[in-house]
């Protein structure tokens, strides 16, 4: 539900033409430290989530590219696609799209560890979605060198880790996960879903 709320908040705040939920093939910063659900299963759940969100698309571009998933490479691919479409249209005045990289405020401190972060800073505007306040009050400053839009996210206090933990303990997640995603998890026999 947190992803749904964040998507709606971002769409409302930024008037986006489209919003891609890009599924990582190999989330290289997480995969060495914990078991990762297979990419195809994560994509199926993301598709189920996007079905009820107008203007939101599940994207498998990182899965199709293979290997570790680096956001900068995904942004470059989106820009190359836009450039190719502009060339095909024959419009010499076509400008590249403005790309917003949407992240939760909890990721901001780790941005410096991302692959080719200097290039990424030049290519995107960071859209930082607030999350429920942390013990430190949730106060963040703008990360250095980034163009930033701050989005007041709905205060939905749920994380993917909390959902996985609830499922592992055999608890219901009906208040935490959209019904379409729960049905997808049950069909794919993921996480021992209990309604």
Layout of strands and helices, then pairs:
Blueprint: H1 2-14, E1 19-22, H2 39-50, E2 56-59, H3 61-65, H4 71-89, E3 100-104, H5 117-123, E4 125-129, E5 147-151, H6 160-168, H7 179-187
Helix pairs in contact: 2-7, 4-5
> N- to C-terminal separation?
15 Å
Count of DSSP strands: 5
In one word, what is the shape?
globular
Question: How confident overall, as mean pLDDT?
Answer: 88
What would you report as the Rg, rounded to the nearest angstrom? 18 Å
Strand order of the largest sheet: 3-4-5
Beta-strand level of the residues, as a percent range? 5-15%
**Helical amount among residues, as a percent range?**
25-40%
How many DSSP helices? 7
Task: Give helix and strand order, one letter per element, not per position.
Answer: HEHEHHEHEEHH
What structural class results from the helix and strand content?
alpha/beta
Largest sheet: 3 strands, parallel
Low-confidence stretches: none
């Amino acid at each position: 539900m947190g992803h749904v709320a964040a998507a709606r908040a971002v769409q409302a705040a930024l008037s986006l033409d489209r919003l891609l939920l890009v599924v990582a093939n190999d989330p290289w910063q997480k995969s060495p430290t914990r078991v990762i659900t297979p990419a195809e299963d994560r994509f199926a759940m993301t598709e189920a989530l996007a079905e009820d969100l107008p203007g939101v698309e599940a994207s498998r571009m990182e899965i199709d590219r293979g290997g570790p998933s680096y956001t900068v490479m995904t942004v470059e691919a989106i820009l190359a696609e836009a450039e190719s479409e502009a060339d095909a249209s024959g419009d010499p005045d076509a400008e590249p799209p403005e790309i917003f990289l949407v992240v939760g405020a909890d990721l901001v401190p780790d941005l410096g560890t991302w692959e080719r972060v200097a290039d990424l800073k030049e290519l995107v505007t960071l859209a930082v979605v607030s999350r429920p306040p942390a013990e430190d009050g949730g106060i963040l400053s703008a990360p250095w060198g980034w163009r930033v839009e701050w989005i007041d996210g709905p205060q939905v206090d749920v994380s993917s880790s909390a959902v996985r933990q609830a499922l592992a303990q055999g608890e219901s997640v009906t208040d935490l996960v959209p019904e379409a995603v729960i049905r997808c998890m049950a069909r794919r026999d993921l996480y021992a879903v209990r309604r």
